Amino acid sequence: MEHKVNLNDVSDGKYYTLHDMVKLGCDGCNGSASCCRFAEDTITLDPFDLYQLSTGEGLSFELLYTKQLIALAPVNGLLLPHLNFAKETKSCPFLNNDGLCKIHASRPGLCRLFPLARYFEAEKLSYILQIHECPNPVTPKVKVKNWIGLANAEQYEEFLLAWHQLVLRAQQKIAATKDTASIGAVTTALLKLFFLTPYTADTIFYSQFAERLQQAEAFLP
User: Which of 110, 98, 88 is nearest to 163 (CA)?
Assistant: First the structure.
């Protein structure tokens, strides 16, 4: 989910890269992490998140949706999946009884980043530190790349940029038309191509995504 805010109000005013050191930590929550609650529909999933959940946890898009673990919501007109936080407790659907994450190894990218957030500008991706989000004091510095904790972090960034650009193009196409049928066709095509069509665990994600990205050119001129 994208938010248009004054960065000086929410961050320390710095832009970080994968190789920068930032004061980050996740030690003082003991199962009561505020980052796993009250996020509502803001934890939007991307194709890599779905790949991780399906190949790592055996959770396909259909299963996630049927069990109401995810839901769909419009983001600037384009329907995208997001974690479906419980209405009563306002907590993540993947928390166990002790308040700990059941899918930690496969958790979505936005969860991996917290309290960092992504900042896209043109064809560049940076990270900002959200200074009001985590209530626990943190002293150690961690390299952003290690905090994200994914192999091939540079390749992961390339994917994020490509996906971001694709979503922007889809949103622009939707904004340019008032034809509901055309809007529905774009959303349906994207959901089917990048989320509903299963990913295979024996093939690297990025090559699968690249193939689908080429196919998307057919309906996003």
Answer: 110
pTM: 0.90
Can you tell me which residue has the tokens 């991706």? 125
Q: What would the two tokens of residue 94 be?
A: 């993947």
- Structure letter (DSSP) for residue 178: -
Q: Reduced to 3 states, what is the DSSP secondary structure of residue 81?
A: strand
- Cβ atoms of 158 and 193 within 8 Å: the answer is no
Sequential pLDDT tens for the chain (221 residues):
455 556 766 778 899 999 999 988 665 565 556 667 766 778 999 999 999 999 999 999 999 999 999 999 999 999 999 999 988 888 899 988 888 889 999 999 999 998 899 999 988 999 999 877 666 666 688 999 999 999 999 999 999 999 999 999 999 999 998 888 988 999 999 999 999 999 999 999 999 999 999 999 988 87
Residue 153 host element (H or E): helix 153-175
Looking up tokens 């194709």, which residue turns up?
47
Helix, strand or coil, per DSSP, at residue 22: strand
